[in-house]
Amino acid sequence: MRKKEMIAMLLAGGQGSRLGVLTATKAKPAISFGGKYRIIDFPMSNCINSGVDTVGVMTQYQPLQLNQHIGIGIPWDLDRRNGGVTILAPHLRGDEGEWYTGTANAIYQNMDYIAKYNPDYVLILGGDHIYKMDYSLMLDFHKKNNCHVTIAALEVPIEEAGRFGVINTRDDSSIYEFEEKPPNPKSNLINMGIYIFDWGILREALIKDNKVHHDSDFGKHVLPMLLNEGKRMFAYPYSDYWMDVGTIESYWNCNMDLVKTLPDFNLYDDFWRIYTDDDHQPPIYTSSAADVRTSLLSEGCEVFGNVYNSVLGPEVVVEEGAVVRDSIIMERTTVGRNARLERCIVDNSCIIGENVVIGDGENIPNREKPKIYNTGITVLGEHTLIPDNVCIGKNCVLYGRTVYDDYKDSRLESGESAVHEPEGEVLF
Question: Is 391 helix (H, G, I), strand (E, B) or coil?
């Protein structure tokens, strides 16, 4: 096996519980984004655009859709004999083996994969952020400063810094302290969860910390340990668009950023393309009665109604008289005649009946999951059916084949849920 200068290890096994019903049947990195993409497409594309041609993807929670999407890596030019993309699921080795229990534990369980390439450097990535980054420039920074560890860092408003891991640095960007979600942060520089390690340093640290922490984690355990040992750790400054789509509102906002006249995040950059597993789809069709404004429409869409400030995935049908506003409609969904949707997220393969109204009423947090659904966005899970002539409020959750009995007087009030889970499973 030919030696590699740097390989990437992509952590893609998270459940994304704060995304609620959207992750009921798939891992967070497999969620659709921007119509035709999946969230994992962004770090994968960053790798190949940066010249990193060996990527290990660690999967765990609901991996089927993610594994099918990645395949053998053809869309990202990662179908290679020496390197390419490899799916790394938890597995048994003799009497040993377990689920990944932390970010560092996942890398620890795959050290044999890394050692096969004997790289000089290991790039650690999360699979659930929307951004463009040239990792080769970060590697140059790492080498120039003779680092043992380099951490990508982003400045955020100081009032938001407490939601993240905060990095405190000296004037030369060397790190002297970490603060994990501090109530009163000393700086506004946050840890983006993107790391470059010298392979020898990483290997020794993983072995040492695994003996102490069963749930070994980079932010909580490995990085503070290395800092205490006096290893050279620097913050690599990043100032472009980056979004952690970890909540319903952040996912909705990030998609809405794409439909601005001058979008904050540009999907049309030929120099830094975002690649995806994109089957050949029929062209977009809009009828003479359609009205589409400030929206993204993916291949195969058919629009006979009205779409405003929204993102539509492949093969979405908006029937005559329907109005879709400020919403995200994922692939293969049909919006019935004269339906009206506002501030909705609709997952794959849903059917919304005729004359349905979604997003009507007061902004009352969801009664069962108020911490997840509280910003006025109503969410439909995968394969949901909404019957004709019903009205649905804000912060509602719908999943499965709903029936008229779910709607008292043909209405589901704001903050209520209609969830029909498969027998034996708890998905909501």
Answer: strand
* Matching residue, tokens 């891992």: 27
**Do 196 and 121 contact (CB within 8 A), yes or no?**
yes
Per-residue pLDDT tens digits for 315-360: 999 999 999 999 999 999 999 999 999 999 999 999 999 999 999 9
pLDDT digits (tens, 9 = 90+) for 66-82: 888 888 788 888 888 78
Q: Are 284 and 313 in contact (CB under 8 A)?
A: no
Is residue 55 exposed (0-12), middle (13-18) or buried (19+ Cβ within 10 Å)?
buried
First-to-final CA distance of the chain: 45
The amino acid occupying position 60 is Q
**pTM value?**
0.90
* Distances in whole angstroms, Cα of residue 162 to Cα of each of 126, 152, 175, 373, 382: 20, 17, 18, 22, 33
> Which pairing describes strands 391-392 and 311-312: parallel, antiparallel, or unpaired?
unpaired
Residue 302 pLDDT exceeds 70: yes
Q: Tell whether the model's pLDDT for residue 387 goes beyond 60.
A: yes
pLDDT at 423: 47
H/E segment holding residue 41: helix 41-49
Question: Residues 6 or more apart from 107 whose CB is under 8 A from it?
Answer: 9, 58, 114, 122, 124, 202, 206
Helices (H), 229-275: 248-257
- CA atoms of 14 and 42, how far apart (whole Å): 16
pLDDT band at 94 (very low <50, low <70, confident <90, very high): very low
Residue 268 Cα distances to 122, 127, 265, 271, 346, angstroms: 30, 21, 9, 9, 24
Strands 311-312, 328-329: pairing is parallel
C-alpha distances (whole Å) from 235 to each of 241, 280, 328, 337, 414 are: 17, 42, 35, 53, 44
What is 124-139 written as a DSSP string? EEESSEEE---HHHHH
| Mean pLDDT of the 185-190 span | 93
One-letter amino acid at 74 equals I
User: Sorting pLDDT into bands at 50, 70 and 90, what band is 218?
Assistant: very high
Partnered with residue 6 across adjacent β-strands are 121
